[in-house]
Design a protein that fits this description.
CATH topology of the largest domain: Arc Repressor Mutant, subunit A
Number of helices: 12
Structural class: alpha+beta
Radius of gyration: 26 Å
Distance between the termini: 62 Å
Low-confidence stretches: 335-340
Length: about 350
């Protein structure tokens, strides 16, 4: 195993389907063979909570890992320039003395560490993924060979841990997706590499509001239809699929994907709107007010959609529509208060 090139080992881990913590621990295990260390800390950057979220440690006491999981540590990393895309830096090269850095003065030095090697993890496309710190009890600085080797391997480590990698794997679950966006907990979105952008996936879009509300409510999956071009219910529809980020840091909520072809069971645009309000538990009177149509018109729409869904009751129609994703949900600001 030792004879295998480190790049080959890291690439193999990056391509594996193992969980994020398992990949992180495998990376540290392999790295120890090529860039020996006494202890290590591997973390993802979390811009929402201003901390680095630990995903892998090696030979560190729990008290040390608990200390490292603080916003102040992220501030020190930024203060010392260790959040920039640059070669690995040793403790002796830091622009601030270690006794003036609380993480070292209060935690790492008392734990017996005197030297270290830190590097920010960046993907080849420039995305900042996280931070890797290697720790040593000796004051002897790391050798140039160790620095060079860590610098060569750090982009592969970043690729293996990238949240985008896990999200892209999720997109393959939705056949035919042509556009997508990543939803972050701070209310922003970012594009998914390999998929197009679309105005329906902008941060201010009602589709994104619905998707965000779905994930914040604890759902891991939702599918629904949405009209293209406007929210009046007229014209063609696309399918929106919402997937939670189940193994990623808390600042990533999940993704929303757009698929152009969708089955609507022959339902008209207005019937899809009515069905969406049925799914939300609205009465005919509430639907009438929401759509600004007569109650008799709503009753006719309900009768027609019951037949098309082959559902004897409106409750069963709503269940089938939600299960199949065959409805257009109302925008969040238009939702009525549910009665319990």
């Amino acid at each position: 195993m030792r004879d295998r090139p480190p790049v080959a080992e890291m690439t193999e881990i990056a391509a594996s389907t193992a969980s994020l913590p398992d990949r992180a621990n495998a990376l540290l295990d392999r790295l120890d063979r090529w860039v020996p260390f006494e202890a290590a800390w591997l973390a993802l950057t979390d811009p929402w909570s201003k901390v680095y979220a630990p995903i892998g440690t090696c030979r560190l006491d729990r008290s040390v890992t608990s200390y490292l999981d603080r916003p102040a540590v992220a501030q020190e990393i930024e203060l010392t320039g260790l959040n920039r895309d640059r070669p690995p830096v040793s403790v002796a090269e830091l622009p601030i003395a270690v006794d003036e850095l609380p993480t070292w003065a209060e935690c790492l030095t008392p734990a017996g560490f005197r030297e270290g090697l830190g590097v920010a993890l960046f993907e080849p496309n420039g995305a900042h993924v996280g931070f890797l710190g290697l720790l040593y009890s000796s004051k002897e600085p790391p050798t140039p060979a160790m620095r060079d080797r860590l610098g060569q391997l750090s982009p592969l480590i970043a690729r293996a841990l990238s949240p985008m990698r896990s999200l892209l794997a999720s997109t393959r679950l939705v056949e035919g997706a042509v556009a997508g966006a990543v939803m972050l907990r701070d209310g922003t979105t970012c594009p998914l590499p390999g998929l197009d952008d679309h105005t329906l996936l902008d941060a201010e879009s009602p589709v994104v509001d619905i998707a965000r509300g779905t994930l914040l409510a604890g759902q891991v999956y939702r599918s629904f239809l949405w009209p293209v071009g406007n929210d009046s219910g007229a014209g063609d529809h696309v399918r929106m699929t919402v997937l939670a980020a189940t193994e990623l840091p808390a600042f990533v909520l999940g993704i929303v994907l757009m698929t152009p072809d969708c089955g609507a069971r022959g339902l008209t645009p207005r019937e899809l709107q009515v069905l969406g309000l049925l799914v939300e538990g609205c009465s005919n009177q509430q639907i009438s007010r929401r759509l600004v149509v007569a109650p008799r018109t709503v009753a006719t729409h309900v009768e027609h959609l019951l037949g098309k869904l082959q559902a004897p009751t409106r409750t069963l129609a709503a269940v089938r529509a939600e299960r199949e994703g065959c409805y257009v949900p109302p925008a969040p600001t238009c939702l009525p208060v549910r009665r319990h």
